[in-house]
Design brief:
By secondary structure, this protein is an alpha/beta fold. The chain contains five helices and five strands; from the N terminus they run E-H-E-H-E-H-E-H-E-H. Strands 2-1-3-4-5 form a five-stranded parallel β-sheet, with helices on both faces. Bound molecules: flavin mononucleotide.
């Protein structure tokens, strides 16, 4: 059973991305994965700079990095801020990248990304940037499917699932691929 770590790039009360992360966590479990969902808000971190290389990382950074290493794959739900991803998410990933003595935690890690926004592009612009950083900066393996949930403030049906069939179809493809590829992890 592949293990998948799920979190959002926002921990704001009422966060649309936390809601998306929770939905995907349930979908991944239904597809046979063992899921751990966390909130980055439980891992408060200072803004990183190069002094991080010269001192011990904060305990929260170490815990986050060990969680990443302990799972076969990740799903990250990211808000879009001015066409990019939020600085708090990048800060957390930067800390994760250097917090382990055993090497960068995200290297070779399978990652799926998505995001929720009330806008019509549904975080797509932020996801293209997040993909680049995860792949080129962190050495992660990002699966092709990206889940951009547009109109997310009104995007859910009475059953709690994504109302738009096209977006739900993309979700299904993302979940299927993530569980399959995570299951191949050594
Ligand atoms: C500084 C800032 C910039 C934003 N820029 C965008 C944007 O470029 N595109 C977009 O769709 N939403 C943008 N938003 C709106 C966010 O999508 C919205 O605040 C969303 O609720 C954030 O995700 P969350 O609900 O998970 O916290 C921006 C919000 C902030 C605070």
């Amino acid at each position: 059973m592949p293990s998948i770590l799920v979190f959002a790039g926002s921990w704001r009360p009422g966060s649309m991305n936390t809601r998306l992360a929770t939905l995907i966590a349930g979908n991944l479990e239904a597809a046979g994965a063992q899921v751990t969902q966390i909130s980055l808000g439980d891992y408060p971190l200072p803004l990183i700079d190069a002094r991080a290389y010269e001192s011990e990382p904060p305990e929260e950074a170490r815990k986050l990095a060990e969680l990443v290493v302990a799972h076969d794959a990740l799903f990250i739900a990211s808000p879009e801020y001015n066409a990019g991803y939020p600085p708090a998410l990048k800060n957390a990933l930067d800390w994760v990248s250097i917090a382990r003595k055993g090497g960068p935690a995200l290297r070779d890690k399978v990652v799926a990304i998505g995001g929720a926004s009330a806008g019509s592009l549904g975080t797509y612009r932020c996801l293209t940037q997040l993909r680049t950083v995860l792949e080129l900066g962190f050495g992660a393996l990002v699966i092709p499917e990206m889940l951009a949930v547009s109109g997310a403030d009104k995007g859910y049906g009475a059953d709690g699932d994504l109302a738009d069939k096209r977006i739900a179809g993309m979700r299904d493809r993302l979940v299927a691929r993530l569980v399959k590829v995570a299951g191949l992890a050594p």
